[in-house]
Design a protein that fits this description.
six-stranded mixed sheet; 14 strands; transport; four-stranded antiparallel sheet; ATP-binding; membrane; about 600 residues; Rossmann fold; ATP binding; binds adenosine-5'-triphosphate; nucleotide-binding; alpha/beta
Length: about 600
């Protein structure tokens, strides 16, 4: 209902705008609409996926020049002649070129950690501006003029008012599909990128694909904005597509709020209106002409980052949330949804993970030295040992984060040493993290649903067009069920970041079990918890064991481990020093000396 009334209000506002605004205001509204479309792509890319691009203006340039070139050049090269001078041909060409460049840039940079994408987009921004300025066929620095009036389906967009309808209709459609995307399994995969690659990969998310999706959508929005720009100005030249313009789009995203889709509209409007105003005011104050507004925007962004790091739209939304009465919990819409299919489970007592001779060398250091262990369905195995004993290293080998120097790992009957975390997740392994890795701005329910990522099939297009609702209801119902299982049913609609640490750890377990795993790896689950929270956690792990889940945990807390585990595996200096039932291990002299002795 809220979405519908918002959409109706937006359509009505766009409908009457040309009748109420002066021609100058219509021109400003058109510029804002085009800039907001580019910024929307940046919000998705930078604010939501956490990837920075300085090259969005260059993608706008591709869209604008493609339209201008097809519409103005009389003798087209044979490869493009079939597209004729049609505006649709220009749109298709601009989109195809922008997407092709985005695929190449993404393919080169996404597999590398670090700042390769921002650097790549700077290089791309500089190169394309140089190309536009020097290519004779594109008119060099003078550009291409004489673009005809845009005509679509027999309608001529020959006035600012008609162009306003078109530009804002495209922008509203882009806002709608982006909102749809973010409210879906695919959108959660893009959002999960901000939680770190390890978390995303461990949930079975294809990180490169998710980054590419965000980058391609942002490039497509920019190219469409360029097409609209060309037909609005009816003239293109290199300056509006320079690296400087790319930085201005980033400013708009930061000002509006890089994590909110409405921030794109707010940011573009604030930037363009204040630029217009400052361009009049500042030369007057300074007594001479100059681009003084650039200095003001630089300062504005610094001040904003200090006081409103999430931008204006997010600050307004937070204030509104504070002013509103707390909402009653949203109805459990998914509860009537059919349950998701579940994987075939091993029989109780069946060995599901068998590691033999695991050795991991870091240069001259043997972090794991010929370690062998196995885990059975329906048991809790605890790995303990003093600091530096090699527990985390072993955990990384078993979860696919690292590859052993030697040794074999068989998981559910298949060789798994060196498999990726994603492959391990697909095969039935789920994990939590020593330092919780949640998405604090997302709700508890959305965080839990990330765990069920591999249990859905619907793609990006289905998500954007809302053709995924049945599956989405099933995924959310599953997340709700797992939250109820860990005792967080009442917190579904709260922000994950607002939970105390103990509940955040429970949420991580709910997220992990939403994947329907056979083996759950818990990395120091009791760290930082109070006594009651530890008891609650131990009760939950016990229930999971009773349900047939195999649990392998790495833990420092002796009381917690001894009261819970079926078997304890003790390590020191990378090797196994004892292994058996808690009472036997506790009495083992080697353990007392190496580990428990320190406490005695
Ligand atoms: N990536 C790495 N490069 C080099 N040495 C490493 C690396 N990772 C771990 N080590 C070393 O391997 C040894 C085992 O470390 P590990 O983190 O596995 O121990 P741990 O038992 O988990 O310790 P803690 O309980 O303190 O977390 C340590 O000496 C550590 O310094």
């Amino acid at each position: 209902m809220r979405r519908l009334s918002l959409a109706a209000a937006a359509i009505a506002a766009v409908g009457v705008a040309p009748l109420l605004l002066t021609p100058f205001q219509v021109t400003l509204a058109n510029n804002i609409g085009i800039a907001a479309l580019v910024t929307l792509g940046l919000v998705l890319l930078t604010g939501i996926a956490g990837l920075t691009s300085f090259g969005q203006a260059a993608f706008v340039g591709i869209g604008a020049y493609a339209a201008a070139y097809l519409a103005t050049v009389v003798e087209l090269p044979p490869a493009l002649a079939w597209l004729g001078g049609s505006p649709w041909g220009g749109l298709a060409l601009g989109l195809a070129l922008a997407l092709a460049v985005a695929v190449v840039l993404g393919a080169v940079t996404f597999r590398l950690a670090g700042h390769y994408l921002p650097l790549g987009t700077i290089a791309w921004g500089l190169a394309i501006a140089f190309l536009f300025g020097t290519a004779d066929s594109l008119g060099g620095y003078t550009g291409l003029s004489g673009i005809p009036v845009l005509s679509l389906f027999g309608v001529r967009f020959d006035s600012g008012g008609r162009l306003l309808w078109l530009i804002w209709a495209v922008l509203l459609a882009a806002l709608l599909v982006t909102a749809n995307l973010l409210d879906s399994r695919q959108g959660r995969a893009i959002r999960a990128l901000k939680g770190g690659q390890l978390m995303a990969r461990s949930m079975g998310i294809d990180v490169v694909r998710a980054k590419m999706a965000a980058f391609l959508i942002a490039a497509a929005f920019a190219a469409i904005a360029g097409w609209l720009y060309a037909y609005t100005q009816r003239f293109v030249s290199p300056a509006p597509f320079s690296l400087g313009a790319g930085i201005e789009y980033l400013f708009m995203a930061l000002i509006g709020g890089a994590a909110s889709i409405w921030g794109a509209v707010v940011g573009a409007a604030v930037f363009i209106l204040s630029k217009e105003w400052l361009q009049d005011l500042l030369p007057h104050l300074a007594g001479r002409t100059g681009n003084f507004e650039a200095v003001v925007f630089g300062l504005l962004v610094i001040v904003l980052m200090q006081h409103m790091p999430d931008g204006i739209a997010s600050a307004v939304r937070r204030a509104a949330r504070r002013a509103r009465r707390p909402r009653p919990p949203s109805p459990a819409a998914g509860d009537t949804a059919a349950p998701l299919p579940m994987r075939a489970k091993p029989r109780p007592g069946e060995v599901i993970l068998d590691a033999r001779g695991i050795t991991r060398r870091f240069g001259g250091l043997l972090a794991n030295d010929d370690v062998s262990l196995s885990v059975r369905a329906g048991e809790v195995l605890a790995v303990i040992g003093p600091n530096g004993a090699g527990k985390s290293t072993l955990f990384n080998q078993l979860s696919g984060v690292d590859r052993p120097t030697a040794g074999t790992i068989v998981f559910r009957g298949q060789l798994a040493a060196g498999s990726s975390p994603r492959a391990m997740a697909r095969h039935g392994l789920a994990r939590t993290f020593q330092h919780v890795r949640l998405l604090p701005e997302l709700t508890v329910l959305e965080n839990a649903a990330i765990g069920a990522h591999l249990r859905g099939r619907k793609g990006l297009v289905a998500a954007m067009l809302r053709l995924d609702r049945r599956e989405e209801a099933q995924l959310l119902a599953e997340a709700r069920r797992q939250l109820a299982r860990v005792g967080l049913a009442a917190r579904c609609d709260d922000r994950a970041g607002s939970l105390p640490l103990g509940q955040q750890r429970l949420l991580e377990i709910a997220r992990a079990v939403a994947a329907d795993p056979c083996l759950l790896l818990l990395d120091e689950p009791a760290a930082g918890l109070r006594f009651e929270e530890k008891q609650e956690l131990a009760g939950l792990i016990d229930r999971l064991r009773c349900d047939g889940m195999a649990v392998l945990l790495v833990e420092h807390d002796m009381d917690f481990v001894m009261g819970l585990a079926d078997r304890v595996f003790v390590m020191d200096f990378g090797r196994e020093i004892a292994h058996g039932r808690p009472a036997d291990v506790q009495a083992d002299p080697a353990v007392l000396e190496a580990y428990l002795g320190a406490d005695a």
